[in-house]
Design a protein that fits this description.
Helix content is 42%, strand content 12%. With 476 residues, it is α/β, with parallel strands linked by helices. The protein has three domains: 111 residues, Up-down Bundle (Ferritin), CATH 1.20.1260; 290 residues, 3-Layer(aba) Sandwich (Rossmann fold), CATH 3.40.50.150; 38 residues.
């Protein structure tokens, strides 16, 4: 692909690989379905199925291949209509509606197609290898977007899925699913725990795993990711923006879910008008605030959530205070795991937290756990990222998965009564009481402190100006 003049950069390369893999895997799953059911009807017209145009010595190449891909196949797949017997067409259409073939050379494209064609998705060994490779591609190539979007480390997604412990009969959602890391971990967790015991339960997974992603490339990557991980028809991976639905009327009771696992984009702003979908008390364009508000809304009673949020959500005031008040009143925010500020390096150095909560009962006390860097390591980075085994200490401290019994205060863990939080104007940014005051030399933290102090100085200046104006008869 690097030899092709039409492909510019890793984002386009991964997009190109993704739609090719999608068609190959989709065709392999359809061939398997045809063997199991003689009445099975393909979701794609035969001329555009992978096995029809990508396989064989007489398969097209050069200009003929480019002409076929750009002028025949892509237009047809973008307009596929779903019928009662062809509901999988929805998946194909949503994947291709904004997809694009970047390659200009039909000869080079044929070489890529031939390489992809060597994969046998119905081979368990090939499928396992492809899953590992796909995970590495996502990790290595997905770069930060301009709206706070980046790859969530597997150590974090796996830990969150294990602590929330989704069951096979529950609806599991990521309302900003990106490439599907949380949903994959939920699926893998249920399989590892032997919650999925029958072929019928495996088939029902496609109805239980729900994702929403507004951008085309992550949606394509997520849909392909689901297929690689055993969801042959990921109809509930929606190419849609959950924030554009009406908060009050856009979510029916049947849309409510049992489990939410997510790392919503933060630090970015939604487009004008999106905030109008929310009640006046929660109107904002800050994505993290909108998503937290939405998550509280769409969780079922007794539903469980694990959400990655920035420090700003914990100590922020104004609208953030009202959202936290709603959270503590409607949900039991039982645990906050505080992460080091380099977990998402190099994409961002913002300090983050994992909030675990259950809907239906108000918060009485909050346990905090401070995850520490490995001994001798000053920060995480691309060559030394967070590893899943580093979360073992927190899992051991957690206690019983469901009841959380057995927890004790340690140098890394402490408990706070909700009354203290409320008295402090719903400030959830509670520092570790077992650690003395530390001087930070981190540039990001220092800039944040500087900005906060400047705002306080400006407020004092305005107050003083008001007092002087009063005293001098508004002559100042």
């Amino acid at each position: 692909m690097r030899k092709d003049v039409g492909v510019d950069g890793d984002a386009q390369r991964i997009g190109q690989i993704a739609w090719l893999l999608f068609l190959k895997i989709f065709d392999d799953t359809e061939q398997e379905a045809e063997m199991m059911d003689k009445n099975y009807k393909s979701a794609i017209p035969n001329r555009f199925r992978w096995s029809s145009w990508a396989v064989g010595q007489k398969a097209e190449t050069g200009d003929e291949l480019i002409q076929f891909i750009n002028n025949e196949m892509f237009p047809k797949l973008k307009e596929l209509k779903a019928t009662k017997d062809n509901h999988r067409a929805i998946v194909v259409r949503s994947v291709f509606e904004d997809a694009y073939n970047y390659m200009k050379s039909g000869t080079l494209l044929r070489q890529v197609v031939n390489k992809v064609n060597e994969i046998d998705f119905n081979s368990s060994q090939d499928r396992h290898t492809l899953g590992d490779l796909y995970e590495k591609i996502l990790k290595d190539l997905q770069s930060a977007g301009n709206a706070g979007e980046f790859y969530t480390p597997r150590a974090v997604t796996k830990f969150m899925a294990e602590m929330v412990d989704p069951k096979v009969n529950e609806k599991i959602m990521d309302p900003a699913c990106g490439t599907g890391g949380f949903l994959v971990c939920a699926i893998e967790h249920m399989r590892e725990q032997k919650y999925i015991k029958t072929a019928a339960q495996e088939r029902k997974l496609k109805d239980r795993i729900i994702g929403y992603e507004k951008k085309q490339l992550p949606h394509l990557l997520c849909t392909t990711n689901m297929m690689i991980h055993g969801i042959p028809s990921p109809e509930n991976i929606n190419h849609d923006n959950t924030l554009e639905r009406s908060y009050m009327t856009g979510w029916k009771p049947s849309d409510r879910v049992d489990v939410i696992l997510t790392n919503p984009p933060f630090g970015g702003m939604e487009k004008d008008g999106v905030e109008n979908n929310f009640p006046a008390e929660f109107k904002t364009r800050e994505t993290a605030d909108l998503f937290l508000t939405l998550i509280i809304r769409i969780l079922k009673n007794e539903g469980r959530a694990a959400v990655v949020l920035p420090d700003g959500t914990l100590f922020g005031e104004g609208i953030k205070t009202r959202i936290k008040k709603r959270l503590l009143e409607e949900c039991n925010l039982h645990t906050i795991v505080r992460l080091p500020n380099s977990v998402f390096a190099p994409y961002t150095s913002i300090k983050t937290n994992i909030l675990f909560f259950e809907k239906g009962k108000p918060t009485k006390k909050i346990w905090y756990y401070e995850h520490q860097l490995p001994e001798g390591q000053k920060a995480y980075n691309k060559t030394r990222p967070m590893r899943p085994e580093e979360m073992e200490a927190c899992k051991k401290w957690w206690g019983n998965i469901e009841t959380r019994r057995g927890r004790k205060e340690t140098e890394q863990a402490w408990c706070v009564d909700v009354k203290e939080i409320i008295e402090n104007n719903y400030n959830l940014d509670i520092k570790n009481p077992h650690v003395g005051e530390q001087v930070s030399h981190d540039s990001v933290q220092l800039l944040q402190q500087y900005e906060k102090q400047q705002n306080e100085i400006a407020d004092l200046r305005n107050q003083l100006k008001g007092v002087l104006q009063e005293a001098l008869g508004n002559k100042v």
